[in-house]
Structure prediction request, 194 residues.
Amino acid sequence: MDTITAGFVDGIGAAAATSGVLSQLQGRIFALLYLTPEQLSLDQIADELQQSKSNISVNISKEAAKGVVSLLNPRDQVGISAAYGTLTIPMQHVTDKASINKQIDGMDPADPNSYRPDLQNAEQVLLHTTAKIKHVILLGDGDAFDRDYQAQVVKMANENITVSAVETNSANLRTISSCPSVSTTRVGKARHLS
Prediction:
């Protein structure tokens, strides 16, 4: 990255760190993407910012989670897991998006061997809500393999809980296969996207 671009990226990062909205790294990612006319891969972003792919991926996942929260309204409920098998951010009505986003920024997500405990926990939490639409969005890096994903997703679909999976750091074609195994199961009217 040239000196002028690096100065801008670092400046936006520093400003973001004091904003209470974005972390320094999130500001740097935003600035780099803003200045770059072509699309960048995760590898390219990590290389340009001299950060690990894992760190970039986690921050992209957090921004995706905040993007989902931004689409919700106060009658909606949201709970967020950090891949520990429980909700890191408890189920709540979306009445204070800034607070929820701050909690998302403070999360330290795990890199689990399986997302099944999180899917099972989400299922149990959603079964005890009065929400009419019950949906789980799984954000993951795609390297957690579990042959029981399909059975869990089918069980949830039979309980009118839908699941979408979004992969943020697929290293190769083998790893890209785990999130689709969660999300390509079709049951009834449920749609599962990857």
